[in-house]
């Protein structure tokens, strides 16, 4: 990101419809200048009134009203080196009452800097418009290390919690061991964090510690990111969907599951990272595969810096885009879409070739009031909105009049006109007497000439995409406008389903006196402000009128009182009754797809008091294996019809994980393990839960198994699943009844831990374990008495074993492979200083063809032979070559009776049938006794 953020910026694009980009047929781009000037645009967010906050890298915070000039609220102190600065913005869900926003930035402190998430309160002017920031409250802060991959995005969730992304803060110019912070749950770097409103960890986080909720581990939701620069929360899954910026080769899009490990720096995309993957700290690090990864480059399907986006939940785009995840690459100026299922698995790959190209440099995506995709273009400094005019909601024209008969002047007011996309409108007036004015504003006056007493005026309103709405207005210039007084409930009144809405009205007219009042009603259904549409309701006449509030979801009621005088001039007054709403939040004991269908499938929504509707839970959790077991306090069916009471409502779906399923279904296991002592933990692909007498583990490779006793102690001591992989068997007893063991699988590398009371618990894995298994496990060499260890020269690896007092070993080098050595031959090898003498075993102990002897060959060219009669003796070098040439033990010499020794400068080995001597002068010479 640094190259663009620190480079020269292009001129700001003026407001209007852009034409440079290549877009799918029917789409257009609408640009809004942010007024940041040379301060690179980094983030933006909508306020409840659909105005906008924008921020710049250099610390600028600006407010852009829906229509009119913006204003700068403040310029905060920031560190702007490379890709640091003011980069993240979120508006609190309760902004209407709290006026709180959240900002992420880097700040110089002394000779260094810190990275900070802070809450600010927006101050307002007399008109209620934002005017500044005050009351900074630091919620999260960590010292900075490098000038890249710092604190990134923040999302303020509807439940009041905060999501925060932070890069690894490593040095991108080299293999930086500091990047391994991304793997360390005690470091915030390379993480997505889930925080409470006061900055502590959320209890549902995978490493949450109830005794220390402020610890870094308690805040971690997922790890293993390089730079999760932008992310959003999927409204159905409730999980982050993030773009992770790559290093040498790959850019990633990730559906981020609780406790997942996205692998950096050991993995990039689906591949081990060159330079990092061979580091010792990367041993055993599992990789949660991205749902999509693309390579670096300038090719059609390539890019260089991914920007995570959002799921499109509007209704104006063609159906093929609804529910799609939009994301971009700001370096190559592209936007793609993809789809994934309830398990976060890719179901529709990005378009090839991409259909949104040349669109600028997207560095943040959000949704316009009607759901349109809007992104911050750092290259132009504009907010760019992808709109589809064919699905645009047409504005609704409304107007009232007031007439001065003495001057025949009529005042028109089109302010009641509405654009549910919240676009600024243009007002065109046709006064019905041949005079027309365009783009004249919502309020105009017009004098009418004498001679004609009735006209029909027309108001036409236009939105920026060209959609129009019209209304006709009866005008009588010489006639007074009727006066209508509407009495309504108090201004802040809201209504529950079936609650009566009562109104009254009275009307007088200068020419006609009292006038009868006619009432009409409409239920305006607004799944979003952009998709409002009306359903006609019951009408009536008289001075009073009442109706029960609608049970239609996401709706308000409009009550209109109308009077018409004898000249045909009409006056209307409308009262809008708003619903009394409460937030419904769906939660689950395991991450799962939860939805409120009537609210568009989201898992949290504002719903009218007294409304009845259904909620749905997926049969399986996002992990694909946790099973729905019922709603807490509700039915066991996945669908539950609920009625909203007088307060917010939280509903929790219970899911039984594979660990729950096995524990609950196995009485013998429950008796063995005892009661649980902690909540289930998700650690990358491995889940585990602690019980009084052990742990249950689940993983895709091992299923659900338990580990207990000294085997568990050893497993945890060597680093658990992160170092040794997940268990693939229960703790079991060997056939001889002596030992307990578990098997494990570390990315395909099988390992075991064996325990006996005599030997303790020890690990064995890799090639040494394969050799031990080939020798019939403990029935061959016995039980391991050491973990796998490295030899002093750094070349070899070994385990020692014991069986009935007989010590054995398996030694491994990449050159020799793994070989067993034991008994008298091993004793001799040990007496000769192990590998420092003859080198490493190049064979297992083998039997000679005549059946009398046993031997091992070694890497430095020597051998040790053993018979009961001769004992174990070493033979090597030129003497060994001569003995071999004579036919080994089949020669007249038979087996060695001594090691090689030296007498008066002569090298010699004695054999059963003679001896061999060696000097440089004579070479190797054999002689019989």
From TrEMBL:
SMART domains from the UniProt entry: PKD
Keyword entries, A-Z: Signal
PROSITE patterns referenced in this protein's UniProt entry, alphabetically: PKD
Domain PKD, first and last residues per copy: 427-450
Provenance organism: Amycolatopsis vancoresmycina DSM 44592
Protein name (Swiss-Prot/TrEMBL): PKD domain-containing protein
Signal peptide: 1-20
Domain of life (superkingdom): Bacteria
GO biological process: carbohydrate metabolic process
């Amino acid at each position: 990101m640094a190259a663009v953020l620190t480079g020269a910026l292009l001129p700001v694009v003026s407001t209007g419809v852009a034409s440079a980009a290549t877009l799918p047929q029917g789409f257009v781009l609408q640009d809004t200048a942010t007024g940041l000037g040379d301060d690179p645009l980094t983030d933006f967010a909508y306020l409840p009134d659909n105005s906008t906050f924008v921020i710049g890298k250099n610390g600028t915070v600006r407010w852009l009203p829906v229509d009119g000039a913006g204003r700068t609220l403040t310029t905060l102190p920031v560190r702007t080196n490379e890709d640091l600065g003011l980069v993240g913005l979120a508006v609190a869900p309760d902004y209407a009452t709290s006026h709180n926003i959240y900002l992420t930035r880097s700040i110089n402190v002394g000779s260094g800097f810190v990275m900070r998430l802070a809450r600010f309160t927006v101050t307002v002017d007399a008109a209620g418009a934002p005017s500044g920031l005050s009351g900074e409250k630091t919620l999260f802060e960590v010292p900075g290390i490098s000038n890249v991959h710092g604190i990134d995005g923040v999302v303020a969730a509807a439940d009041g919690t905060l999501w925060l992304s932070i890069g690894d803060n490593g040095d991108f110019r080299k293999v930086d061991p500091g990047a391994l912070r991304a793997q360390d749950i005690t470091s915030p770097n390379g993480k997505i964090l889930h925080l409470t409103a006061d900055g502590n960890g959320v209890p549902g986080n995978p490493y949450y510690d109830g005794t220390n909720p402020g610890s870094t581990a308690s805040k971690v939701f997922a790890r293993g990111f390089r730079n999760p620069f932008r992310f959003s929360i999927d409204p159905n899954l409730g999980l982050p969907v993030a773009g992770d910026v790559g290093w040498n080769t790959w850019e990633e899009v990730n559906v981020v599951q609780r406790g997942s490990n996205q692998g950096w720096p050991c993995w990039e995309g689906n591949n081990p990272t060159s330079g990092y993957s061979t580091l010792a700290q990367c041993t055993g690090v599992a990789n949660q595969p991205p749902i999509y990864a693309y390579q670096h480059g300038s090719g059609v399907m390539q890019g260089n810096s991914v920007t995570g986006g959002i799921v499109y939940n509007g209704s104006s785009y063609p159906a093929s885009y609804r529910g799609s995840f939009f994301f971009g690459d700001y370096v190559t100026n592209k936007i793609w879409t993809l789809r994934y299922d309830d398990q976060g698995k890719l179901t529709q790959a990005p378009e090839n070739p991409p259909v949104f190209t040349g669109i600028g440099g997207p560095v943040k995506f959000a949704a316009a009031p009607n759901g349109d995709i809007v992104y911050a273009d750092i290259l132009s400094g504009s907010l760019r909105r992808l709109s589809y005019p064919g699905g645009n909601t047409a504005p609704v024209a409304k107007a009232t009049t007031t007439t001065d008969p003495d001057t025949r002047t009529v005042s028109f007011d089109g302010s009641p006109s509405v654009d549910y996309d919240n676009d600024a409108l243009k007002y065109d007036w046709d006064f019905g007497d041949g005079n027309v004015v365009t783009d004249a504003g919502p309020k105009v006056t017009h004098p009418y000439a004498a001679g004609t007493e009735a006209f029909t005026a027309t108001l036409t309103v236009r939105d920026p995409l060209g959609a129009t709405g019209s209304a006709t207005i009866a005008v009588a210039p010489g006639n007074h406008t009727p006066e209508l007084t509407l009495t309504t409930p108090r201004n802040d009144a809201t209504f529950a389903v079936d609650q009566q809405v009562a109104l009254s009205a009275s009307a007088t007219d200068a020419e006609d006196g009292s006038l009868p009042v006619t009432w009409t009603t409409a239920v305006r259904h607004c799944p979003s402000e952009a998709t409002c549409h009306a359903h006609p309701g019951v009408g009536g006449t008289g001075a009073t009128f009442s109706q029960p509030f609608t049970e239609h979801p996401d709706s308000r009621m409009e009550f209109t009182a109308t009077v018409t005088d004898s000249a045909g001039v009409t006056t209307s007054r409308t009262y809008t009754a708003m619903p009394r709403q409460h937030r419904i939040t769906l939660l689950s004991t395991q991450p799962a797809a939860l939805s409120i269908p009537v609210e568009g499938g989201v898992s949290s929504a504002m719903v009218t008091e007294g409304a009845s509707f259904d909620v749905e839970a997926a049969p399986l959790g996002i992990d694909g294996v946790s099973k729905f077991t019922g709603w807490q306090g509700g039915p066991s069916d996945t669908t539950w019809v609920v009625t909203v009471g007088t307060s917010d409502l939280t509903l929790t779906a219970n899911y039984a994980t594979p660990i729950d399923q096995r524990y609950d279904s196995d009485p013998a296991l429950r008796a063995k393990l005892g009661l649980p002592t902690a909540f289930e933990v998700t650690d990358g692909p491995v889940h585990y839960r602690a019980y009084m007498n052990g742990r249950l583990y689940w993983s895709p490779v091992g299923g659900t198994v338990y580990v207990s006793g000294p085997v568990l102690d050893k497993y945890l001591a060597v680093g658990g699943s992160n170092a040794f992989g997940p268990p693939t068997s229960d703790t079991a007893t060997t056939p001889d009844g002596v030992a307990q063991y578990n098997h494990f699988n570390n990315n395909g590398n099988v390992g075991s831990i064996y325990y006996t009371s005599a030997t303790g618990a020890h690990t064995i894995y890799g090639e040494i374990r394969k050799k031990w298994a080939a020798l019939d496990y403990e029935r061959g060499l016995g039980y391991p008495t050491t973990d796998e260890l490295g030899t002093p020269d750094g070349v070899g690896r070994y385990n020692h074993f014991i069986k009935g007092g007989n010590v054995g070993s398996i030694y491994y080098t990449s050159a020799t492979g793994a070989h067993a050595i034991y008994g008298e031959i091993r004793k001799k090898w040990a007496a000769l200083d192990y590998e420092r003498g003859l080198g490493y075993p190049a064979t297992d102990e083998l039997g000679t063809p005549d059946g009398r002897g046993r031997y091992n060959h070694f890497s430095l060219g020597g051998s040790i032979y053993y018979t009961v009669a001769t004992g174990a003796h070493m033979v090597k070098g030129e003497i060994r070559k001569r003995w071999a040439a004579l036919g080994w033990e089949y020669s007249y010499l038979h087996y060695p009776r001594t090691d090689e020794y030296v007498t008066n400068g002569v090298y010699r080995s004695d054999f059963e049938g003679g001896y061999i001597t060696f000097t440089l002068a004579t070479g190797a010479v054999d002689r019989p006794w």
